[in-house]
Amino acid sequence: MPVQALLKRTSAPAARRFPHWYHRQVCRLLGIRLHIDGHVVAGKPVLLIANHTSWLDIPVLSALAPVSFVAKKEVGGWPGVSALARLQRTVFVDRERKAAVGDTAGEMLERLKSGDALVLFAEGTSSDGNRVLPFKTSLFAAAKPSRATRRGSAGEAEVANADSGILVQTVAIAYTRLHGVPLGRADRHLTGWYGDMDMAPHAWELLKAGPLDVAIKVGTPVLLETFTDRKSLARHAEAQVREALVALLHGIERGTPPATTVRQENDSPPLDASPRSD
After folding, report:
1. pLDDT for 14-35, tens place per residue?
2. Euclidean distance between CA atoms 203 and 200, whole angstroms
3. Is the pTM for the entire model greater than 0.90?
């Protein structure tokens, strides 16, 4: 935490890369094995739209690529979690105030233009991991604001070029195996953190359960400007994530081994996706 706090003040590129390296080490230590199909485009502004199953999604996606997250404003008030979120340069969204959309859109636009990859959990909450909940189109308002919203906050010239060059990629996450044994529908509550579950007991039970396999499917990049509005963006992303999650879960149930093509950014050594020898 002190290292990242220093990097935030002295080097934006390093502050972007360090959490990626750090969470890769966290996954190694916890025995979390990543099986990745596809890769996040490097060196481009990317909006990643993902399903949300567990608090464990944060280190898993951070190990996938150098990313920051878009989170609801309330997360900024959670003890402990708030500090970690701010260190990873989280963008906070006030979902209760429509007037705040323009400010958040401006912040996201500046971050994307600077080369950041931002992760948006479009379901608005976490699930049990067996399905994708309907995407909330309101959450896309900051990523794809209306012309009226952008005109009021940024001016006509910026409205015309706001989406230029920004890519959209979907990400499906499925927790598939525990100790190498496939997780079925009835067992997936071990990884899912949802409803009124307390985080601390859930984290303790999950972390002591043993080595965990996670399958990740990264979608093909599409230009943000391809979508006419936030609703079309939400429909595209939900369909892509839902299809990918079904494929990942059905592949495990049928005994199909997950993909192990692991792409690491910044010329990092590959993350070993094979079982640990110890």
Report:
1. 999 999 999 999 999 989 999 9
2. 5
3. no
Average pLDDT over residues 118-144: 84
167-212 pLDDT, tens digit each: 999 999 999 998 888 887 777 777 766 666 676 776 777 777 778 8
Domain coordinates in residue numbering, the chain: 2-253
Domain range 2-253, CATH architecture: 3-Layer(aba) Sandwich (3.40)
Structure tokens at 8: 């935030």
